[in-house]
Amino acid sequence: MFGGNYNVKLRVGIFPKKGKLELRVMDGNLVSGYLDIFNKSNPLQGTIENGTIDIQGMIKLPVGETEYEAIGTVEGNTIKLKFDTKFGFYKMTGTRM
């Protein structure tokens, strides 16, 4: 099962920023949810297939708001994502709550 809530850390700058990721799997491989980080709740959508997740949305970073695409994996209770934004690449890791 890939859906659920995760405690996450986004590597931005010197210190990782803690947050929460909520994923809901709908209609087979469609994903929706929220990324709560930097005191903002950011909706997301995407797909998941064979443990590979691809999500898109807007995120408010310390350097500004930007669109992103994040691709990664869900294995057991662990999620790993790499965010591609106009400000650069950021890594996120998390564990299921």
Which series of helices and strands comes N to C? Answer: EEEEEEEE
Structural category:
mainly beta
Q: Which runs of at least 5 residues are low in confidence (pLDDT < 50)?
A: none
Quote the distance from N terminus to C terminus: 13 Å
Largest sheet: 8 strands, antiparallel, barrel
Backbone shape: globular
Beta-strand residue percentage = over 45%
Strand order of the largest sheet: 1-2-3-4-5-6-7-8
**DSSP strand tally:** 8
Helix coverage percent: under 10%
How does CATH name the architecture? Beta Barrel
CATH level 3 topology: Lipocalin
Helical segment count: 0
The CATH H-level superfamily is Quinohemoprotein amine dehydrogenase alpha subunit, domain 2
Average pLDDT value?
92
Overall CATH class:
Mainly Beta
Number of domains: 1
Question: Which radius of gyration do the C-alpha atoms yield?
Answer: 12 Å
Break the fold down into its secondary structure elements and pairings.
Blueprint: E1 4-11, E2 16-26, E3 30-37, E4 40-49, E5 52-61, E6 64-75, E7 78-85, E8 88-96
Antiparallel strand pairs: 1-2, 1-8, 2-3, 3-4, 4-5, 5-6, 6-7, 7-8
Question: Any overview of this molecule?
Answer:
It is a single chain. The protein is an all-beta fold and 97 residues long. It has a single domain (4-96), classed as Quinohemoprotein amine dehydrogenase alpha subunit, domain 2 (Lipocalin). The protein has strands at residues 4-11, 16-26, 30-37, 40-49, 52-61, 64-75, 78-85, 88-96. It has an 8-stranded antiparallel barrel. A hairpin with a 2-residue loop joins strand 6 (64-75) and strand 7 (78-85).
